[in-house]
Amino acid sequence: MSRVGKNPVAIPSGVEIDVRETEIRVKGQKGELSAPVNDLVRTEQKDGQFTVRPVDEENPKARAMWGTTRAIVANMVTGVTTGFSRELEINGVGFRAQVQGSNLFLQLGFSHDIHYPIPSDLTVECPKPTSIKVSGANKQSVGQFAAEIRAMRPPEPYKGKGIKYVDETILRKEGKKK
Hints:
By secondary structure, this protein is an alpha+beta fold. It is about 20% helix and about 35% strand. The protein folds into 2 domains: about 10-80, Ribosomal protein L6 (Outer Surface Protein A, domain 3), CATH 3.90.930.12; about 85-165, Outer Surface Protein A, domain 3.
């Protein structure tokens, strides 16, 4: 029994879920998302709830896809209603970021500035020159874009310089001793 899969997904008002043979489409006020459906699970929608069941409970792959499919649908429903966001913090002398049009400009101590294009389904804000907020409806693309930004200058353990998530803690090292 999947602990995640057996819980139904509550469908809030204003959200439409359309199940086709090979994909699920979720439409809400923040946009429309779609995901492929595995043929090892079957879906059912009634009374404002969306449930997922495995076709064969003896098949380990079907049981694995049961919880995975339910989690994907729940994330899509959350994404089209409230959305997801990830905040990053920049530490370092002269390190800064700004948004100009559809590009993110980063100055991270390299000999050149980094011009990084922003995907069309995401919004990026820089409330301060040392903070970046990535938000959008798709949880995977928000996390992927934030991870790509962080990978440009990951935080180093001695002085803490680099780009880190706001809720991330960096284990600091002491450094050389005489």
